[in-house]
Structure formats: structure tokens, C-alpha cells
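Before the break, one more example. Copy the sequence into your notebook; we will annotate it together after we see the structure.
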Amino acid sequence: MSSHILPPLSPQQITTLRDAAFAAKDTAYCPYSNFRVGAAILLCPFPFSSSSDPSVSSSSLDSSSADSSNPIIITGANVENASYPVGTCAERVALGKAVTGEKQVRDLVRCGGVRALGVATDVRPAASPCGMCRQL
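Here is what the structure looks like once it is written out:
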């Protein structure tokens, strides 16, 4: 098993991730708390990720669409329900979209291609992810 040390995110990647999380926040459904949360997942280009999933072949992973100039970003926003605590956090919505999305995105996620997660809220200082999202 080889280990790879990923370089720090570039300023452009950080800005892109932040902007995507803030844009996702605007799609939140939170009529009860009015606490809007947006999340954005940056998927990493290969060859940093390696698959332990035999259903994912390296030929199905096209790194050209996930490079730093055209990153793959998956977003999500929190969704509340009148029956507390049945709502869903923005981080889990974004990850659910990534895991069930198009084949190339699913393959990147299955191979450990999640590079970074950005979360945006309306509060200062920014809120931290809940325990469940930290475990996910």
C-alpha cells in the first residue's frame, strides 16, 4: 500500500470551494430554524487516489475533468423537517449526491477521491459540522 501526500489546496481551489458552499447555502430548506447551511465537496484528480473497489477500473477515471482549472464540485444544503430531528445536514446531502451521482463521480468517491469539504453558514464564528457528519 502506497501513501500519497497531497499538496495543500491552492488559493483558487479554496476560493472555488468556498464560493460553491455559499451558493449551496442559498438552496437550503430551513423554514423552522432559518439556519442555512451549504456544503461543497472538492473531488481530487488522480493519481492520488487508489481504488480498493474491484468494480472501479482506472480506465473509467478521467482525471482531465477534475484538474485544478476545472474541478469537480458536488454541493448540498440542509433540509429540515417538522419532525425534529429528521432533517438532513448539508454535508450528508452533498456526500449522498456524490455517492449516487454520475458514474465518474461515484468512481472518484469510491476511490477516496474526496479532496476537501467546505461548509458555509450565516453565523460568525462559523459553525462546526455535527458529530454525525464528522463521522461520515
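The radius of gyration is 16 Å. DSSP finds four helices and three strands in the chain. Try to locate both features in your own notes.
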